[in-house]
Known about the structure:
Elements: H1 15-28, H2 46-49, E1 53-54, E2 62-63, E3 72-75, H3 76-81, H4 87-92, E4 97-99, E5 113-115, E6 123-127, E7 130-131, E8 150-157, H5 161-164, E9 171-177, E10 184-194, E11 198-208, E12 212-223, E13 226-227, E14 235-237, E15 239-254, E16 257-278, E17 282-306, E18 309-328, E19 335-354, E20 357-380, E21 383-411, E22 414-425, E23 429-443, E24 446-457, H6 461-465, E25 467-470, E26 475-478, E27 486-497, E28 503-520, E29 526-528, E30 531-556, E31 559-572, E32 585-595, E33 599-608, E34 611-614, E35 617-619, E36 622-634, E37 637-644, E38 666-675
Parallel strand pairs: 6-9, 26-30
Antiparallel strand pairs: 1-2, 3-8, 4-5, 6-7, 8-9, 10-11, 10-38, 11-12, 12-15, 13-14, 15-16, 16-17, 17-18, 18-19, 19-20, 20-21, 21-22, 22-23, 23-24, 24-27, 25-26, 27-28, 28-30, 29-30, 30-31, 31-32, 32-33, 33-36, 34-35, 36-37, 37-38
Amino acid sequence: MSVTRVAGFTGRGGRAAVVAAGALVAALLSCAGVARAGEPSGGEKPEDKAVEVTVTGTRMPEGSQRSTVRVDVVTRAEAERRGATNVAEALQGQLGVQVNPAAYGEIGGPSAIQIQGLDRQRVLVLEDGERVIGDVGGAIDLSRMPLSDVARVEVVAGPMSSLYGTSAIGGVVNVITGQPLDPGLSGRLRVEGRNRRGVIVQGGAALRGERVWGTVDGSFVRGDGVALPEGAIDLAMPDRQQGMIGLRFGAQIGPRSRVQARARWMHDASDGRQSQVVPGLGTYRIDLPQRTNRFALHLVELLDLGRGSSLRVALGQQWAFDRTGKDRHESPLDEERARAASLSSAEVTGTLADGRRTWVLGARAEVERLSQSLSRAELVNGAVKTTTADELAPTMLGSVAAYAQLGWKVLDSLTVLGGGRAEMHLRYGSVVVPRIALAFQPSPRWTLRASVGRGFRAPAAKEIGFSFDHGALGYRVIGNPDLGPETSWGTSGDVSFRPAGGLIVRGGVFANWIDDLIDIDIQPTASEGGIDDYTYRNIGKARTFGAQADAAWTVSRALRTEVGYAYLWTRDDENQRPLEGRPPHTVYAALRATLPLAIELVLRYRIVTDAFLDEGLRTPGFQTLDARLARPLWPAAQIYAGVLNATGVQRDPERLGDQRPIPGRTFYLGLTAELPAEEP
């Protein structure tokens, strides 16, 4: 049995003093890294400037210049300049995060995000503030989220459990949809072709009246898989088709009341392939089909209480269904896993303005249901027999929470933000998590921030009740209903400086101490008939530390440059070694220029160094270059062409832990058009 261990930090005594000192040090040393507090990444188009108000960091609308908590923002316009068609591609070039499917090949290669060295269920992914379900091996696949109806993506690093609860140890990713801005009928279409028979069609239509608006959004994506080496049976990346249909609606139902509703269906179909060598019989092909459907309903009422105060009431319902098969070519001996998940939620959030003080008070209740079964066709006494059994018996997880936050503008230049969350879970009891943040702006050119907070992650259903039978390999994994939550302390500091001439310089540092991380205990709990039983326990301890620094210079309306560096240090205190697969150094540079004939050129260069895997084994480092050329055809229409990963670096399937890009070099050609076609 192969067990991958993740760990956290030792020593409970004196931690409060360490954390307080860490917050002070972070504030003093913040010139060492990067913080993009609500500033749109890399762009200055009108549609970018329209969203310089962030909400994820504090649940309060804040202008980017006075944001109390650091928030990185990627607008749809900037994402498309990066050549992105989904949220994963939009964030792949973002400094301070890692989005790399090759790092998760053992669970199917989802495009999960890593923030501050933490990933999978330790980073919370939201859509319009609502938690997303339907993970793959504990990771939300951001490549399944198209940009069709996305206005912007906000990323907040560090513990955010005081506002958002479980899983927000490493940070929060909030995918925010937009409303139609133009009155009357409007629309948007994007058509793109890629090599490997890639086809992408995304768009939508909207109607906005004086008091009512509505949109219909859709997306279709397909592409061939990638065989490594060329012509091999095994696919490093499966053939894939994705579809999305979404409906959104908003109405002013009174002088102080607005309602918004969203319904969405997402479908993902992939067909992988692998080979199996049977001694004496040869090599056999196994098809690996996967079909995923996710449905989401979201209803929000917004009440204006006057004098800057408001009340938000939200109801949410999600369903996720996933089927994965192992279809042995020309053999009836197959197996299929069926997973089902649902999440019902209700939340009330009040924002109360009281002069220089702003309160955020809220309560949330949610119920999550999960199950997983395995159907297996086996040869018994010369006949094929199919059996179905629960791997995860139907499990219900429930929680209720209350949270409060006070933002106090002590001085015109100083804002203090403090708050906390109390959450009660049906399975393991209660937890309380505080947070405090400071923002100081001594002049319009300088902004300094510091924060410290506690995070936690509730045990997942599979960790509580999962029973994975690998008896043929000599072991089983049994869930543990007595698990407690993972907990953490995190601190960060950052500074941004805007001298004259369109230059901005940013820096920041962070540190995290994680305790009671959940992992598989390497000591079996029981052994019978040559089969060992293993279970999950709270055994992990880890630390992460990092620093970032970057600068952006808008030389003129026709030229903008960026450069940045990020450093990450991690420590598995349980095994006295770094955490696996975390690149310590990342460097990036970007250029956007307007050339003759109104051609826009965008270049993005990225260096990722090698990373620790095991003693004497490291992942290879790599460099990528993305390039895109775009030119207007007529008002509100643009033709573009580009290449992702022009250097052509590609994962070697024979090399253990290789995290280089799976697809290799990708070429694309496309067209975007909008209605109404007004002069810019």
